[in-house]
Structures are given as structure tokens and as C-alpha cells.
Amino acid sequence: MILRLSALAVLLYALGFAFFSVSLPDPAPRGKTDAIVVLTGGKGRLERGMAVLADGQARRMLVAGADPSVTRADLARRLGKGSGKLLRCCVDLGSESVDTRSNAEEARRWMTKRGYSSLRLVTSDWHMHRAAYEFRQDLPEARIVIDAVQTRPSLFILFAEYNKYLLRRAALWLDL
């Protein structure tokens, strides 16, 4: 009996991992939100957020989890010509958060302060399941548009992220 239950648990885990791996989200279609929240830490995230902002699909952007030493001038150098004006007028650098969970908390405080009720969440496709889960927990009333940056994650990255996702769901379920 224990062997069968163990085999069932392993099978469910493996099927869950397979579903997680093949259901990575895509970039969002064009559409307006009050804000964009870009989570730092992955290639193409900031560029995607800036492109959406430049296209007028949101009023303002928060770069959540930015290193405190990073300035708008640093970002302008990284993003290239034409980004400076947009960075000065419409981008906030949030340096209060250190992980996905605190990114959601930082974004909630920022959105509440500004009176926003909708956001476009920009992060890597492999990170989006957990990020969206955290944001939905912290901002249950907000309309959240998922805007994933396409990547080619390794099996190791997918495996690690799936386990983090499961652990976080279990922690909330157990009220830890």
C-alpha cells in the first residue's frame, strides 16, 4: 500500500512537472493597464517592459527588485538612445524587494500609493507561474495581465522553478 501511494505521488509530481514545463506563458497581446511591473533578474525583461511603456500601453512602470545602486542613467546606458526621457518621466526603481514574494509586496504598496488597479506583470516565461501566483495572492483585487518574456530555459531551471512553485503553494496552504 505504501509503495503504491509513493508511486502515485511520484507519478503526480512528474505529470505536474511535465504540465508546468509545456505550459509556459507567452507574451501578452497589446492592451492597456494602469502600470507595468518588471521583475529584475532575467534577460529581456526590462527591454520588454520599456517597449510596452513606450507603446503607451501603461502610464507608469515599476522595476521591482532593482539593486539600490542602479540609477536611471545606468538603465539609459543599458537600453540605449531614446530611453532616457521615458525613464525620467515614467519609471520607478523599487529596491525594497529581494525575491518574488517581496516583489509582489513592493508592487502592492506602489500600486496602492498611486491608486492603480491593473498591471502588466513582466518576467521570464519559466518564472511566470510562481510570480503570477505571488502577485494574485498579494493583489487579489487587481487585474493582472501576464506578459512573459520568451526564453529557452534549461531542464535544471525548470526543475528548480517547479519545486519553488510547489513549495510556495504548500507553504500558503499550510499557512506558514
TrEMBL record:
It comes from Sphingomonas rosea. This is YdcF family protein. Residues 34-141 form the DUF218 domain. It holds the Pfam family DUF218. The lineage of its organism: Bacteria, Pseudomonadati, Pseudomonadota, Alphaproteobacteria, Sphingomonadales.
